[in-house]
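Marked as duplicate of an earlier ticket. Keeping the data here for the record.
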Amino acid sequence: MKDALVVLGMHRGGTSSLAGTLVHLGAAPPKTLMQPTEHNVLGYFESTRMHHLNQAILESGGSDWDDWRAFNPRWKDSAVARTLAETARETLEDEFGGAPLIMLKDPRICRLVPFWFEALRATGYTPYALLPIRNPLEVALSLRQRDGLPIAHGLLVWLRYVLDAERTTRATPRDVISWRALLTDWRGTLETASARLNLIWPRVSDFSAAEIDNFLSDTLRRQRIDDPNWRTRPEIHEWVRLAHDALDELTRTPNSNSAMETLDRVRTEFDQACLIYGPALAALQDRLVRSDLLVEKLSEQAESGEASRLEMEALRERIRELEAAAFALTTDRDAIRAHVDNLQAALDAAEANPAAFEAERAALAAEIEPLNTALQVAGESLAAAETRLAEEIEARQVLATRALQAETELEAARAECSNARARAEAEAA
């Protein structure tokens, strides 16, 4: 059998730093690595294919990554689950190519542990679980900064992830790891993990140690809670405090029965609360989501209206330029016609004196010909300008109609958004 290191932790809970350390110690990462972002400049060490697959699994079960309710327990018996299980096995083979020691990580796996452990065993791997534990308030603050989640929401999601991951790995070789200890003493932390898992890290050397020293840094803790009394803060529910303390106990005493009993009690109470309050809060959350969509639509319409206003101003300016050009062309044409009339009068007078007529006719004809040409050109330019002016006026009328329609829709969206928020606030109260 081959070995699979499965990093199971909450989003923003230290999973990337632990995963990267395991890779430096010799575990093979997935081939399609997620690219670093401003929220994780050192990289996620996470398969993009597995990321999308896990999100698809959650959505197929009516859930999402930030859902704190229990995942549909009957999903595993569905035809969808069987199809996605085959996809998971293919993904493991493609991403790791049969490497003897692999590392896979996606926080969503915390809620899908049985699914992925079965897929690993089906592809010839023995799963080993590593559970990094970070201060839940730091996690919630980081989620608020990255995703805009309220602190209370982030703490509930943290509770769901860590409870599910801990409960479903009890029969699996595992180690619960303090993330703070990993940052301050990765050597001791990973030596302990090696002993508890009965695994050897293949790439232990001075070179790999230097790499990890450069990779890990306490600056990774951009959300830092050093207050020893953080547990007494009003936003920290008793379940969160009890779960964190029990998990912290497991980092020191992996087989602590009292810690697991505490986690079981918290999980039972939390699941019961989810069954009671989940449906009502889901309905409220759905209305808030639709309200946010209305606000987004309202903003887009406002931006569209501003763009239409600017476009109309540019169109008006263009029309003014065309009107000025048309006036100038009309003035030039009238002057040319007056000059031609004067020349024609002179020609008529010359005809009364045939002797002088022939002498001046050629000169007059030569002078009149370019004037007629200029007159024709001016007429054509004026006609073209009048055509463009008519088109611009028509375009302005169309734009004005569109702007009026957008304003009407904007007012309707504002009214709907106001009504939706009023209903949501009334129900929340």
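See parent ticket for discussion. The chain has a mean pLDDT of 85.
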